Amino acid sequence: MEDTVRAFFHKVKDGFTMNSISSCYGLRAMLLRHIHYFLAVADHGGFTRAAAALHVSQPALSQQIKQLEETLGVPLFDRTGRTTRLTDAGQVYQDYARRALLDLQAGKRALHDVQDLSRGALRLGLTPTFTSYLMGPLVEAFHRRHPRIVLTVRELPQEKMEQLLSDDQLDVGIAFDEVRSPDIETQTLLVETLALVVGKAHPYAQKRTIGLQALNDESMVLLSAEFATREQIDRHCRQHGAQPRVAIEANSISAVVEIVRRTTLSTLLPADVAAQHSDLSAVALNPKLLERTAVLLQRKGAYHSAAHRAFVELALDSLTRKRRRRA
């Protein structure tokens, strides 16, 4: 069955390379319609809800699916029960259909890609930690160079970011090097170190370094457990025998920073976060509590637009220069 489906997609591919331009557009339109309709029925679990979502009549949708099944020579849906389910062949076809749709969407962007960057779009994802100190400088520099590129910036957990990259709903992400998806490739940006971040009224505000065991005497505001940073902090504190008292938990870095600025509570965040605020200080820990690597995330084998390539080049260049200044 998988061979049959593969042969069908090779046939489509050959149509693009051998037929006339008009025939290619006709085949592309037919394939896109069939794929969209097929995936809609599969995702909505039936023809009625899929037809409503597609804004087409149910008989028209059924006819399109029937045409697709006749082309493939196999039934894609089991309609005998109370619910519509994918057949074994339908499950195989679903994987190929999703991949084909991603490739066709990438091809559409490639056709409209403007190499001089006079227009275009870029979809960027960042984990919350990097939003607090990386997004501003990178977006500022990119917008200054390419003001007509429309940027869409989303703050996301890394797991969700990888999913959206794999589904071609993001172009590039900035997260940690603990990548789980085999579809994602990474490029190293920088290594960040967590420090004790305090306000100007804190007793340690003028110190440059403290011993790690000093954390045992600290009352702290930390990110909540939904953040990967918090899980990493808890794990490393246990490993080093440190037991800070958590007085407040917050679900945003901006909230943590604001609380530290206005109280004598401390927190653990990248030193670069403190550098963005004149009334905060980053006190280095000895030995270091946690170092982690920031990476660019991209889908393997994906088409990279001119805007995408320009952003990656800018990010790698600016953060490489930053690493060199620190060294």
Describe the structure.
This protein is α/β, with parallel strands linked by helices. 50% of the residues lie in helices and 22% in strands. The protein is built from twelve helices and twelve strands. It has helices at residues 2-18, 21-44, 47-54, 58-72, 88-111, 128-133, 135-145, 158-166, 228-240, 253-262, 271-275, 306-326, and strands spanning 77-78, 85-86, 120-126, 149-155, 172-176, 184-199, 209-211, 219-223, 245-250, 267-270, 280-286, 291-299. Strands 3, 4, 5, 6, 7, 10, 11 and 12 form an eight-stranded mixed β-sheet that branches. A hairpin with a 6-residue loop joins strand 1 and strand 2 (85-86). The longest helix is centred in the N-terminal third of the chain and has 24 residues, at 21-44. The radius of gyration is 26 Å and the shape is elongated.
Short description:
With 327 residues, the protein is α/β, with parallel strands linked by helices. The chain is built from 12 helices and 12 strands.
Helix content: 40-55%
Report the C-alpha radius of gyration, rounded.
26 Å
Approximate shape: elongated
Low-confidence stretches: 11-25
| Most strands sheet | 8 strands, mixed
Order of helices and strands: HHHHEEHEHHEHEEEEHEHEHEEH
Distance between the termini: 58 Å
Beta-strand level of the residues, as a percent range?
15-25%
Question: Could you report the average pLDDT, rounded to the nearest whole number?
Answer: 86
Number of strands: 12
Structural class category: alpha/beta
H/I helix tally: 12
